[in-house]
Amino acid sequence: MSFKKRTAAGFFWREQGWVYGLLIVAGLGLGAVKLTEYQTASRIYNEGVNVDGLVTGLWSKPLGDAKTGPSYSVRYSFPTPDDPYTNGSQNVSKTFYETLIKDAEIAVRYLPTDPTISAVEPETVARAFWLAMALSVGLVIVGLGGGLHNISRARASVALRENGEVRTAKVTGHIIEGKKKKKGHMLWRDATGVSGRTVTGSLSDLLPVGSQITIFADPECHQKSIWEGDIGSRS
């Protein structure tokens, strides 16, 4: 059986290396959002003015959900020179929320140059800023590190296909993956007793247990052997 040769880029994609790109994008996105929030908080602190407003609505989700956790928010109105009923809203801490009463007065700080930017609990505008930035940096580092590792492995796998030792191995089992059970990989063992696995793929690509397959191996054992179906046949 002959398999189409894969480039390093093709193998990188097959190994879902694009996931590391998503981590980098997520990290940069989180950092950008939190930096914007921090800058907004700084403007409110440095340029804002205080007025007495009115609580117009209170909402809470004490139990929250798996993604966001508990949340508490308040809607309010406050007077500005151009509009006596300027509206605003903010997510606040539980402690602050529990002090609020609907239709009661509330201290509001807003930007005179842009009344749409306001806060009733300014310190929470940039809540957990440094923690979020640390998470952002962590996501980028993991994404870069994982991506570079997979790129190196993809290049090495192509080199192994061209220059590695050709061995025969036997499929010893299948591992089905995911909740939908539509993907999986094969387990194999070669004639020297070395065991390995294939890259995750469609169940239709898995050969029956007991099948003979060709793998490319590193005689010095510096690199994991790879199935020719994952990287392509040599000829």
Characterise this structure.
The chain is of the alpha+beta class and 235 residues long. The chain has a domain at 164-235: Beta Barrel (OB fold (Dihydrolipoamide Acetyltransferase, E2P)). Helix content is 34%, strand content 31%. It is built from 5 helices and 11 strands. The chain has helices at 8-14, 18-47, 94-97, 129-163, 228-231, and strands at 49-61, 71-78, 86-91, 105-111, 114-119, 165-177, 183-190, 195-197, 201-202, 212-217, 226-227. The strands form 2 sheets. Strands 6, 7, 8, 9, 10 and 11 form a 6-stranded antiparallel sheet that branches. α1 packs across α4 and α2 (18-47) runs antiparallel to α4 (129-163). The mean pLDDT is 91.
Keywords:
235 residues; alpha+beta; OB fold (Dihydrolipoamide Acetyltransferase, E2P); six-stranded antiparallel beta sheet; five-stranded antiparallel beta sheet; 11 strands; transmembrane; membrane; transmembrane helix; DUF3592 domain-containing protein
Describe the structure concisely for a colleague.
This protein is α+β, with helices and mostly antiparallel strands and 235 residues long.
